């Protein structure tokens, strides 16, 4: 090949990496869960909810495979609401996902999942960190009393944003 004609592989954006990963990840998790551990490496950590609501981390490929196979999440159909991806250190990608999972009985569970995708030797990425949390949607009307329904201003929730949580010059 003549000098100057060599072509480099196109650099993928964090969004490109995220889109490709999520398509593969949720497809494999649903159709071939026994293969899902291949997204991870020995140094990966996967933290997912247990049936009792507690969280459990798996830190070996064997434990990650066991955790996937014991999980009921693989039996649910994902519907992604939001996907956010950001480039991070050494070419890695941080990926945040929210959505819902629906089971065969149409029971819906809302979730938030965060992935840290690290570059691997030979190209591509692996899941270095995976954190899934099932969340219950909260209606604002259940937390904050309506100003229209408040019998007086004392019953209405007042929020003061004049203080700062951070010290320093901004």
UniProtKB/TrEMBL annotation:
Keyword vocabulary terms for this entry: RNA-binding
GO cellular component terms, semicolon-separated: cytosol; ribonucleoprotein complex
PANTHER family in alphabetical order: NUCLEOTIDE-BINDING ALPHA-BETA PLAIT DOMAIN, NTF2-LIKE DOMAIN PROTEIN-RELATED, RAS GTPASE-ACTIVATING PROTEIN-BINDING PROTEIN
Organism domain of life: Eukaryota
Segments crossing the lipid bilayer: none
Keyword RNA-binding in record: yes
UniProt keyword annotation of Ligase present: no
Any GO MF annotation of the entry: mRNA binding
Source organism of this protein record: Artemisia annua
PROSITE patterns according to UniProt: NTF2_DOMAIN (PS50177)
NTF2 domain mapped to chain residues: 17-134
Annotated InterPro entries: NTF2-like_dom_sf (IPR032710), NTF2_dom (IPR002075), Nuclear_transport_factor_2_euk (IPR018222), Ras_GTPase_bind_prot (IPR039539)
Pfam families in alphabetical order: NTF2 (PF02136)
Protein name: Nuclear transport factor 2
């Amino acid at each position: 090949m003549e000098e100057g004609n060599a072509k480099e592989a196109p650099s993928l954006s964090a969004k490109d990496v995220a889109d490709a990963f999520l398509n593969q990840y949720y497809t494999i998790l649903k159709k071939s869960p026994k293969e899902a551990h291949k997204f991870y490496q020995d140094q990966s950590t996967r933290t997912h909810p247990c049936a009792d609501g507690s969280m459990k981390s798996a830190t070996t490929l064997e434990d990650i495979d066991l955790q996937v196979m014991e999980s009921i999440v693989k039996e649910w159909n994902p519907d992604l609401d939001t996907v956010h991806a950001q480039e991070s250190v050494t070419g890695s990608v941080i990926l945040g996902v929210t959505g819902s999972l629906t089971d065969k009985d149409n029971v819906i569970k809302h979730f938030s999942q965060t992935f840290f995708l690290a570059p691997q030797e030979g190209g591509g990425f692996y899941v270095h960190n995976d954190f899934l949390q099932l969340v219950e949607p909260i209606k604002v009307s259940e937390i904050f009393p309506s100003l229209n329904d408040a019998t007086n201003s004392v019953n209405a929730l007042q929020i003061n944003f004049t203080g700062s949580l951070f010290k320093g010059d901004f």
